[in-house]
Specification:
Largest sheet: 7 strands, parallel
CATH class: Alpha Beta
Helix content: 40-55%
CATH topology: Rossmann fold
Shape: globular
Order of helices and strands: HEHEHEHEEHHEHHEH
Number of domains: 1
Number of strands: 7
Number of helices: 9
Bound molecules: magnesium ion, zinc ion
CATH architecture: 3-Layer(aba) Sandwich
Length: about 220
């Protein structure tokens, strides 16, 4: 990289850090928990959000959907009882703290914000959004070497979800290998084996979310 490009990159990330801190303060002051869900296209992020909204109907939930151009996920999620915000990033393959900074202002009255990041396992890792928890979702259909090929994003995750476990035998993937790779890269992350279509692992996920809300003192119930 040229010097000018390096400087530009440093400035960009510095600016992002500043907005991320502001977001963190904004969320903390209002007792809102925000979760950043990252993962490749097709890993199951949108379906996870839809099922979470159904299972946590007692919680006021806001959803931010990041996508390069399309609004399909937004259309899907808006059918549920949530406040949904779509962010189109244009050419960018990640959400940044400034985009989140603008969106969370419209979600002031919720208790939980689920953020679907743009679908890839590389770019979103560099951008702190000011979220409480980082989640990385992969599916066995991406190949069982997907974890070891993207070490950075798994190292920084609080939760690692391995989805579509029921399909493993049909695509020749080893869930055990994926689990082992994840545990080796990040011994502190919670690993959840899931098959969303079969409703496997979803309860463990919901329990995790409720736990985070309780710890942060967020009102997890509407009453
Ligand atoms: Mg999606
Ligand atoms: Zn990017």
């Amino acid at each position: 990289m040229h010097r000018v490009e390096i400087d530009a990159q440093v400035n960009l990330l510095g600016e992002n850090k500043r907005y991320a801190e502001e977001n963190r303060r904004f969320l903390r002051e209002r007792g809102i928990v925000a979760v950043n869900i990252m993962g490749a296209i097709g890993s199951g992020k949108t379906l996870l959000i839809e099922k979470t909204v159904e299972k946590m109907s007692d919680v006021k939930i806001g959803v931010i959907l990041g996508d390069v151009v399309c609004r399909a996920d937004y259309e899907r999620v808006s059918k549920h009882d949530v406040v949904a915000e779509a962010i189109n990033t244009g050419k960018e393959c990640h959400l940044d703290a400034y985009l989140i900074h603008r969106s969370i202002r419209k979600l002031e009255n919720v208790n939980l914000i689920l953020i679907e990041n743009v679908g890839n396992l590389v770019c979103p890792v560099d951008f702190d959004l000011g979220e409480n928890k980082r989640v990385v979702m992969v599916s066995v259909t991406e190949g069982d070497d997907v974890v070891e090929k993207h070490p950075e994003i798994f190292r920084l995750a609080d939760v690692i979800i391995i989805n579509k476990t029921e399909l493993a035998e049909f695509v020749g993937a080893s869930v055990e290998k994926m689990e082992k790779d994840a545990g080796r890269l990040n011994p502190h992350a919670k690993i959840i084996k899931m098959d969303l279509k079969q409703n496997r692992g979803i309860e463990e996920w919901i329990e995790f979310l409720r736990g985070v809300m309780d710890v942060s003192g967020s009102t997890s119930r509407n009453s």
